[in-house]
Write a structure and sequence with these properties.
Blueprint lengths: L12 H28 L4 E5 L2 E4 H15 L7 E4 L9 E9 L1 H6 L5 E8 L2 E9 L4 E6 L4 E3 L2 E2 L11 E4 L9 H12 L4 E3 L4 H9 L5 E4 L4 H13 L3 E3 L8 H4 L2 E4 L1 H11 L18
Parallel strand pairs: 3-4, 10-11, 10-12
Antiparallel strand pairs: 1-2, 4-5, 5-6, 6-7, 7-8, 8-9, 12-14, 13-14
Helix pairs in contact: 1-2, 5-6
C-alpha cells in the first residue's frame, strides 16, 4: 500500500497479517536487546520524573523496533513511542520498547515489549512480548488472540472470584484520591489484587485468563494499545472508567476485564470524578 494512508476500513485481513508479522519480528528483536541487558546486570538509568525512568536499553530497543518497522510493510505508518513521543492519529505504530523499566532496573522480570498498529484511533494489530519469559501474545482485529501461537480466552469467573491487576497513577498525583476510592471499593468486590506492572503484560495476562481484570488511570497509548486489543480479541471488554468503548486510548483511563468482572467493576469506576489527562501533542514521526 502506497500513497495516501489507509484508513481502518481499508485494511484487509491479509494487510493485517503482514503488519502482524513485522510487529512480531520487531518485538522479538527488541526483546533480545532487553534480555541480554537484563542478564548482563549493568543498567544505567536516569529519572525523567520521580518513579519514571529511562535507560539506554529503552532507547536501543526503540531504535531496533523503528528500524525493523521501517524495513517492513508498515513503513508508511507514523511512529509513536514512549521515548520519542508523538500523537496517535491516522495510521501509526504505537510502541513501548521496555514496559516496566523500574522492574527491569530492579531485576524483577515482569517487563514487556509492546507494539501496536493503530488506525483512526483503533488498535488493529497488537503484540506484547515478554522477553524474560519468552512469551509472545498476538492479535489482529477480528482474528482472535494468541499466546505463543495458541488461542487464548479471558476467564469466565464472576467478580467475586476475580483476581485483578492494577497500577497506581504516580505520574499524576491529583488522581490518587479518586483512584484509592475505587481501589477500596474493588478490594471489597473481588477475591484479590495484584500489582506486578507493566500495563501491557497485565493486559496480556487478562487476555489469557491468568488475571480476570485490569484497571488504571493516566496511562499512555503505548502502555495499552496492544494489550487492549489482546483482551478484546480474547472475548473481554475494554472501556474507560465511565464505560466508553472508545475514549480509553485518549484518556489513558482503562478498565479491561472478562465480561462478568467488567460488569462488577464498572459500577465502582463510574463513581470516580472525571480526571482529564494531558496527552502528547508533538507530531508523530515516520518510522
Amino acid at each position: 500500500m502506497t500513497g495516501t494512508e489507509p484508513s481502518s476500513s481499508d485494511l484487509s485481513g491479509a494487510d493485517l497479517e503482514r503488519y502482524l508479522h513485522d510487529a512480531v519480528q520487531a518485538a522479538r528483536r527488541a526483546g533480545r536487546v532487553v534480555r541480554a541487558a537484563f542478564h548482563d546486570g549493568r543498567v544505567a538509568a536516569r529519572a525523567k520524573a520521580p518513579g519514571d525512568y529511562v535507560t539506554e536499553v529503552d532507547l536501543q530497543a526503540e531504535r531496533v523496533i523503528r528500524d525493523c518497522l521501517r524495513a517492513g510493510t508498515g513503513a508508511e505508518a507514523r511512529f509513536v513511542g514512549e521515548e520519542c513521543g508523538g500523537a496517535v492519529q491516522g495510521l501509526c505504530w504505537v510502541v513501548d520498547p521496555l514496559d516496566g523499566t523500574t522492574n527491569f532496573i530492579r531485576g524483577f522480570p515482569s517487563v514487556g515489549v509492546s507494539v501496536a498498529l493503530v488506525a483512526d484511533g483503533e488498535p488493529v494489530v497488537g503484540v506484547v512480548h515478554a522477553p524474560l519469559w519468552r512469551e509472545t501474545f498476538t492479535a489482529v482485529r477480528g482474528g482472535g488472540a494468541f499466546r505463543n501461537g495458541q488461542p487464548i480466552r479471558v476467564s469466565g469467573r464472576p467478580a467475586t472470584g476475580a483476581v485483578c491487576s492494577t497500577g497506581f497513577p504516580f505520574k499524576t498525583p491529583a488522581m490518587l484520591p479518586a483512584y484509592f476510592d475505587v481501589l477500596s471499593a474493588v478490594v471489597g468486590t473481588v477475591e484479590d489484587i495484584r500489582r506486578p506492572a507493566g500495563a501491557s503484560l497485565d493486559l496480556a495476562w487478562v487476555a489469557c485468563g491468568v488475571f480476570d481484570g485490569f484497571f488504571e488511570l493516566g496511562l499512555g497509548p503505548w502502555d495499552v494499545a496492544a494489550g487492549a486489543l489482546l483482551v478484546r480479541e480474547a472475548g473481554g471488554i475494554v472501556t474507560d472508567w465511565r464505560g466508553d468503548h472508545d475514549d480509553w486510548l485518549v484518556s489513558g483511563n482503562i478498565l479491561a476485564a472478562a465480561p462478568l468482572v467488567h460488569a462488577g467493576l464498572i459500577k465502582h469506576t463510574r463513581l470516580a470524578p472525571r480526571a482529564p489527562v494531558p496527552r502528547p501533542t508533538a507530531a508523530a514521526e515516520r518510522p
